[in-house]
Automatic annotation (TrEMBL):
Keywords tagged on the record: Membrane, Transmembrane, Transmembrane helix
Organism (species): Kangiella geojedonensis
Residue intervals passing through the bilayer: 31-49, 61-82, 88-108
The protein's name in its UniProt record: Uncharacterized protein
Amino acid sequence: MEALISLIIIVVLLVLPLKFAAQFIGAKNTGFFNCLFALIVSALFQYGVNHFFPNLDNTYGWLVTVPVAAIAYMLVLGTSFIKGVLIAIVQVILAVLLTALVASLMAGV
């Protein structure tokens, strides 16, 4: 039961920032399952890029990650590439803030 609750928390922590960012930027498809599918497509695209370019390190990897995520968001969420880039950036910022908030709540701070 704890594993299921943990999985639900992880999915919510991943999908909600994307959903809020997509609504904020003005994407067409901002439903929960659309955003979940966009994350899955983005992860598959990034896996493919990492497969073809395995030597990308942490310093320059984000230069490839943001446009690849933007392409996935553009295709699934129904937006332009520039809006996809903005969604990717806002999503990362919101995910970090939301994760820090949940971690501090779980730690009892």
